[in-house]
What does this fold into?
Amino acid sequence: MKATLTILGCGSALPTRKNFPTSQLLEIRDKQFLIDCGEGTQIRMRQMGVKTNRLGHIFISHLHGDHVFGLIGLISSFGMLNRTADLHIHSHSDLEKILQPQLLFFCEEMPFKIVFHAVDPRKHELIYEDRSVSVYSIPLKHRVPCCGFLFEEKPRDRHIIREMIDFYKIPTWRIPKIKQGEDFVTDDGETIPNKILTTAPETPKRFAYCSDTAHSDKIIPIIQGVDCLFHEATFMEAEQLRAKQTQHSTARQAAETAQKANVKKLIIGHYSARYIHQNELLKESKAVFENTILGEDMTVYEI
It folds into this structure.
């Protein structure tokens, strides 16, 4: 089963005709996770025909407007659509203080509950898990407390070889344990190795999201070897001083991080509105890390 990343907005603070502010939808193991919720997030969802019936958790990296201004509108629309499932928001604790007055004023009679989960952006720790996915915070270097997110699939069960199950007349109640790796012992005491009865599952997918951040080698051990890294590339190298002042990264720095972390694929984004021709950012990144993809609004990428 594929894991996909839908970029709803790939711009930075100032929206442009081409790029809305930051927002992404990760779909993995039959679940949807929204990462940041900039202004226009729900508009992009409507334009793309995205259905959110499996969206239960929203992860907010930090409290700058281009990452949260779309949240109250999205929540309000969920209310109008008669959503009933709880909505969990993982973020810096101050977000609850900011949103509560708006929720009381605009969304007083919502048919669902919003559950806030405080995240400490200074720590790398497990912040969410279920039976199939774990999510970890990634401390980032920005002007306000900020963290990225590492999404990791948990290992799947092994695949049963039906012909072998039938051949050895294995009872149905034994199959779950065999899928988890156990051998099978017949009534005669013969041990049938698991590798004869099953095939290996798909390798678990790992996706890392790092926006907004100044260049920092501290994140490299955390994101080492991920299948896909989204890393901000707000500026080109010619604006390195501006990047340092605003605690952002250049396209080259994003590529250097990807290279050092030995990631399989890099998607860049969070572009400054000054860049009309974003292929120059891509060119700068690819010069260091060849497998770089230029992130674009309303585009779906396979992890």
